Amino acid sequence: MENEIQHHKCLIIGSGPAGYTAAVYAARANMHPVLFTGPEPGGQLMITTDVENYPGYPDGIMGPAMMDEFRKQAERFGTDVRYEMISKVDFSGPVHKVWTEAGQEIHADSVVISTGASAKWLGLESEKRLTNKGVSACAVCDGFFFKDMDVAVVGGGDTAAEEASYLAKLCPQVHLIVRRDEMRASKVMQDRVLNTKNITVHWNTTTEEILGEEEVEAVRVKNTITGDLSEIPVKGFFVAIGHKPNTAIFKDWIKLDDVGYITTVPGTSRTNIEGVFASGDAQDRIYRQAVTAAGTGCMAALDAERYLVEKGVV
Length: 314
Hints:
Layout: E1 6-13, H1 16-28, E2 34-36, E3 50-51, E4 61-62, H2 63-76, E5 80-82, E6 86-90, E7 96-100, E8 105-113, E9 117-119, H3 125-129, E10 135-136, H4 139-142, E11 151-154, H5 158-168, E12 174-177, H6 187-194, E13 199-202, E14 205-211, E15 218-223, E16 229-233, E17 236-239, E18 243-245, E19 276-278, H7 290-310
Parallel strand pairs: 1-2, 1-8, 2-5, 8-19, 10-17, 11-12, 11-17, 12-13
Antiparallel strand pairs: 3-4, 6-7, 7-8, 9-18, 14-15, 15-16
Helix pairs in contact: 1-2, 1-7, 5-6
């Protein structure tokens, strides 16, 4: 029956490098994982063009193609991939309960959370239109494509400071657009930015529009004190105003940090709930790379396997 409660040894919530890697390891360990892709199958890499920093792809690979290969590998070993979203969880008992958007109740002996984090955007039409055409939310991922070109970074926190500093090693000129008269970044990061000669900080400045038809050509900015508009010629525009972890449905059960990232036991993927493990960007506020997400997906599957062995489930 369709609404009959299902029971699985291992349930993986979320796709992307973490979820699919956890699925590969869990499936090979005879845990018969069921993976729910969530609203964005493949995660943030689905809106990424060339991925050139993941080992094993010497010629690079398109983000969607890479995630398709991850999925196929997980399915090859028997992962049940379901293109549905988990909308509710109950981690109060030894058997973990979740519900799909359609209302299907599912029980699991172990759960791997790999719901990722979403980049925050400014909300401009031009920003959306020019994503992967010069607009990016990850300097480490895409900065190399703008080597020897002038770029802009928007943001005033540690992320923006780090991205500007990283890009300054590749680009002749980095324009840091800060909407206030001060940065929220830590003092050491501020000092690094202010002492880097090829970083120009535009204080009290907001982004009005990203200019260009097929690729970024400039950014139109507004001085919030004078109201003056000006254009800065750039080829790359990096949005660094933070990320939002996709963890809202877990907040009543799982311990989160001050901005919503899942807290895990250091050196493991274990959460405060026995049998629930976290991987990928949902618990990583520092690195946020495909390769680190895949690594923690592996950790989560191995931790889940050990847990199930101890419980006599596998």
